[in-house]
Amino acid sequence: MATREAFLAKVREAQPPARPRPEVPLFASQGGDLRARFAAALQAMGGTCVDVLAAADVPALIRERFGEAASVASATSEVPGTREITAETEPASLQDVEVGVVRARFGVAETGSVWFSEREYGVNALGYIVQHLVVLLDPAQLLDGLQDVYRRDDFRDARFAALVTGPSATADIEGVLIRGAQGVRSLTVVWVAGS
């Protein structure tokens, strides 16, 4: 057995037994229109919501917002990209991509967050290495609050899950807000019904 496999086998043997997940209570809903609440929460975090008629309109939106020559890596077949993403795509190969496009599984109105797993990104680095992230979100896939995420089968079955709320930002250096310090500089959620 190779050194790597021996090491991984020892790690697996040392894992503690699985424990059941704690029960998360359901809190009372704030009520109101989920889409309006989502948009307000996302905007408070520096993100933007945009309406389009169909996914076919997204390339024009990208050209308008980011320029005709913007390189685009799309993890959804609904929007063509200038850079192909496959399971074999090396994450570092996306380092010069300006715009990433991905379809969120669902959104959370309480926080303005969109949810991704390895299934949505295709290449995990897509959500962090590009300059601008364009997210397709079906308004019918909005949840009220974070406690609702915990109850979903796709949340429990994912290898990893990321709730993304707005672009990357930091304000810890002399209180100056800097966007894109550790990730995307802009996050645009596009309301597009699922296919």
UniProtKB/TrEMBL annotation:
Record-linked SUPFAM superfamilies: NagB/RpiA/CoA transferase-like (SSF100950)
Domain LUD intervals: 94-190
Entry-linked Pfam families: LUD_dom
InterPro entries, sorted: FTHF_cligase-like_sf, LUD_dom, NagB/RpiA_transferase-like
Name of this chain's protein: LUD domain-containing protein
Species this chain originates from: Paraburkholderia fungorum
